[in-house]
Amino acid sequence: MPESAIRPEPCRQPLRARWLGRQPYEPTWRAMQAYTEARDQNTPDELWLLEHPPVFTLGMNADPAHVLDAGSIDVVRVDRGGQVTYHGPGQLMVYPLLDLRRRERAVRWLVSALESAVVDYLAALGYRAAARADAPGVYVSGAKIASVGIRVRKNGSYHGLAFNVAMDLAPFARINPCGYAGLAMTDLATLGTQQSVAASAANLLPCLARRLEVDEPPLSRDGFLPFGSAAH
């Protein structure tokens, strides 16, 4: 019998889900760092769902040459992998703050779970989407609709998923998205589905819960950063 057939299923840990509305990028990033740094074996896992004002972010080893024309949009170098991407209004951010060791899962599982949740959600809306092994994210007819970038520290994950809902896609033309010159980007509105970011957060949550192997949590509408927003 293959090893995979006898591997026990990991424990189904609970998850708190928070809708935080629109939050500035850097305080949110610092809050994720602080949450991860302070967590211990009893710290609950959380899922933060929100959107950001316009910002370009560069991964730790990203080539700044992929920023072609930042203009008035801030460029922030952050501690995730990958190259450059754009975040802005109309884009749903999903930040999973999980203890991967407690869940007995690896980072590749988390990336796949986030991608698969978006694929599932798009399928429910009638769109055929797929992930790509060579370029993490989700694509519809060759255009990218979701990007994934994860950091793991002390077995805790942060950063996460950017899902394009109804946004101004023009800033993507001012970078090489994810390091790929000319990569086409799309969003739900361009595909023909009009939906707010808040509605997309609520509608995507069941797919996220299923792929993250948790019971669907209620979506708390706090409207504030949960932890350490003033840290660093």
Helix and strand topology:
Elements: H1 3-6, E1 15-22, H2 25-38, E2 45-51, E3 55-58, E4 75-77, E5 84-87, E6 91-97, H3 100-103, H4 107-124, E7 130-131, E8 138-140, E9 143-153, E10 156-164, H5 188-191, H6 197-211, E11 219-220
Parallel strand pairs: 1-2, 1-11, 3-4
Antiparallel strand pairs: 2-6, 3-5, 6-10, 7-8, 8-9, 9-10
Helix pairs in contact: 4-6
Largest sheet: 8 strands, mixed
Helix share, percent: 25-40%
Number of helices: 6
What is the β-strand count?
Answer: 11
**3D shape:** globular
Biggest sheet strand order reads: 7-8-9-10-6-2-1-11
In whole angstroms, how far apart are the ends?
51 Å
Q: Give me the strand/helix succession.
A: HEHEEEEEHHEEEEHHE
Average pLDDT level? 91
What's the gyration radius in Å?
Answer: 17 Å
In terms of per-residue confidence, which ranges show pLDDT below 50 for 5 or more consecutive residues? 1-8
What fraction strand? 25-35%
Oligomerization status of the protein chains: single chain
Structural class from helices and strands?
alpha/beta
Describe the structure in your own words.
The N and C termini lie far apart (51 Å). The protein is built from six helices and eleven strands. Helix 4 (107-124) packs across helix 6. A hairpin with a 2-residue loop joins strand 8 and strand 9 (143-153). With 232 residues, the chain is of the alpha/beta class.
